[in-house]
Amino acid sequence: MPKTGVASLPLHPGRAPRWLFTRMVALSKGIAEVLVYEYGTDEVLRRLSDPFWFQAFSCVLGYDWHSSGTTTVTCGALKEALNSLDLGITVCGGKGKTSRNTLAEIATSGEQYHLSSAMVKRLQYCSRMAAKVDNTAIQDGHTLYHHVFLLSADKKWAVIQQGMNNDTGYARRYHWLSEDVTSFICEPHNAIVGDDRQEYVLDMTAKYSRSTQQVSVDLVNDHPSHLQQDWARLTRHAAQHTLDEWMSPSLYNQVYSHLAMPRTINWQKMKAIYDVHPRNYEELLALKGVGPNTVRALALISDLIYNETPSWEDPVRFSFTVGGKDGVPYPVNRKAIDEATEMIRQSVEQAKIGEKEKISALQRLKEYLPR
After folding, report:
1. In terms of Cα–Cα distance, which of 72, 60, 54, 36 is closest to 156?
2. Which of 22, 43, 63, 211 is the most buried (most CB within 10 A)?
3. What is the predicted pLDDT for the residue at 186?
């Protein structure tokens, strides 16, 4: 994954006032028009998938620099702006119930761009898989509630989606870019932004999890009765004190809290998966009804019984708004920030908006920059 990062995105109550949102839409239009004219639609998608650029863009629009609304309101303003222009980019989906309209809106955009029905179905699949990966294959305690799919007339796409941890009240933002996605099940993200690193996160998209992926596919393609026997060995109350006999040597003497088994398994669903016989892990993950419990159960059986350990490392890597100035745990990417800032500054300068709006936007951008 080219870029990962950490930013505090606390849940703030309320909504953006209409007077502010209206100005955010107007400024978004001006910046979008300049970017498409100067750099083309592909570069716009690249910029929005860059967490530094997206954060700076949100600040220029005038929204809160670090709340979870940074994602939802900025994307909402961008959707209203881009979909009212003829720039070759449309925004599908959004927050909450609006996200359920994503597939239908992709179909509408496909008609607008004269895309074949096969291409529309492929784009809808990409939208579903991006959501499935971040809700199921990566189990970091954040449930998706916002999904935006940006589609260009050139069949390129980007995804900006966000999940909320109801226990902490903090969000994580996930950035995807089609030109960087070579596989949905092997480190497909352009960036993941969250509040902090967690000690144990099941990441079935990590390269380290490839063997576990294969064992998971083998398990569901075997008769479900054999899988039930493995499940019984791990969940039988009398055997709880003997888990060590299935543990790989590398996990001896470690805390096993991250090995918590799901409470239930849908064995009828397992039989249905067996009847389909998925050929690989992507096909397994894409199946309707394969959720976090199924993925986790298969991963833990692969680990504890067959010694194929998945990645338990949180894919969030370094901080760019909290602690990064001290180089802990990683230095701020100054070059990326400078490039993002300069491009937005130029876009604001050339945007078709009033001088007062330009001055205010550039002032907000200045305040965003690290001292």
Report:
1. 36
2. 63
3. 97
The single-letter code of the amino acid at 139 is Q
Question: Does 213 lie in the same domain as 115?
Answer: no
Residues 38 and 103 in one domain: yes
Residue 30's pLDDT is what? 83
Structure tokens at 241: 């004190």
CA–CA separation, 333 and 336 (whole Å): 5
pLDDT in tens, 269-303: 999 999 999 999 999 999 999 999 999 999 999 99
79-111 core/surface letters (b: 16 or more CB in 10 A; e: else): bbbbbeeebbbbbbbbbeebbeebbebbbebbe
Residue 51 shares a structural domain with residue 164: yes
**Does a structural domain hold residue 310?**
no
What is the domain range of residue 234? 207-304
Q: In terms of DSSP H, where are the helices of the chain?
A: 18-39, 41-48, 51-61, 69-82, 102-112, 117-132, 210-221, 224-235, 267-276, 281-286, 292-304, 334-350, 355-368
CA distance 70 to 62: 10
Tokens representing 29 are 């239009």
Q: Which of 271, 304, 337 is the last residue in one of the domains?
A: 304
Instruction: Residue 131: name the closest of 242, 19, 290 by CA.
Output: 290
Task: Report the C-alpha gap between 210 and 74 in whole angstroms.
Answer: 36
Residue 19 buriedness (CB in 10 A; 0-12 / 13-18 / 19+): exposed
Amino acid at 21: F
The proportion of the chain whose per-residue pLDDT surpasses 70, expressed as a percent, equals 77
Name the pairing type of β-strands 138-139 and 157-165. unpaired
Structure tokens at 366: 């200045």
Residue with tokens 């222009």: 85
Q: Does some domain include residue 188? A: yes
**Among positive and negative, which fits the CA dihedral 302, 305, 306, 312?**
positive
Domain count, the chain: 2
> What is the DSSP annotation of 262-279?
PS---HHHHHHHHHH--S
| pTM of this structure | 0.81
Report the distance separating Cα 235 and Cα 292, nearest Å.
18
* 126 and 267 assigned to the same domain: no
Assess contact for 221 and 277: CB atoms under 8 A: yes
- Confidence band, pLDDT 50/70/90 cuts, at residue 360: confident
